[in-house]
């Protein structure tokens, strides 16, 4: 099985998968890493710049680990049978090992509230910040 890890800087897990050009591709069995290689994508093949209808270089992986995956990209991965995993782990090798051991701490994607509700919540944040600033003077 193959697991991809978004790693733009080649040393840490990347949080913006859509624009990432570098992915570590791990060949694994159910218990261990058998090998890894770096896949370097040209800019036009990043998820952000490529069509969801065209074949993609990551189509043969079963899992994609990243520090952040937008909802649209998550749907795109699911349609291709790829499990998208979002984590705060920063070391690519440890993220894969933890995934295989079923101990990788995953982030749960929270749906955004409707735009009207978001504006309402943002207004409260600003009011609170300004109120706090006045109370501190």
Written description of the protein model:
It contains three helices and five strands. It is an alpha/beta fold and 137 residues long. It has one domain: Dinitrogenase iron-molybdenum cofactor biosynthesis domain (Nucleotidyltransferase, domain 5). Strands 3-2-1-4-5 form a five-stranded mixed beta sheet.
Indicate the low-confidence ranges by residue numbers. Answer: 118-122, 124-137
The CATH class assignment is Alpha Beta
> How much of the sequence is in beta strands?
15-25%
CATH topology label: Nucleotidyltransferase, domain 5
Task: Work out the count of structural domains.
Answer: 1
Assign the CATH architecture: 2-Layer Sandwich
Tell me the name of the CATH homologous superfamily. Dinitrogenase iron-molybdenum cofactor biosynthesis domain
Characteristic key phrases:
137 residues, alpha/beta, Nucleotidyltransferase, domain 5, five-stranded mixed beta sheet, 3 helices, 20% strand, globular, disordered C terminus
Give a quick summary of the entry.
By secondary structure, the protein is α/β, with parallel strands linked by helices. It has helices at residues 71-79, 92-100, 115-136, and strands spanning 2-6, 22-28, 33-40, 63-66, 83-86.
Q: How do the helices and strands line up, and which of them pair or pack?
A:
Blueprint (H helix, E strand, L loop, with lengths): L1 E5 L15 E7 L4 E8 L22 E4 L4 H9 L3 E4 L5 H9 L14 H22 L1
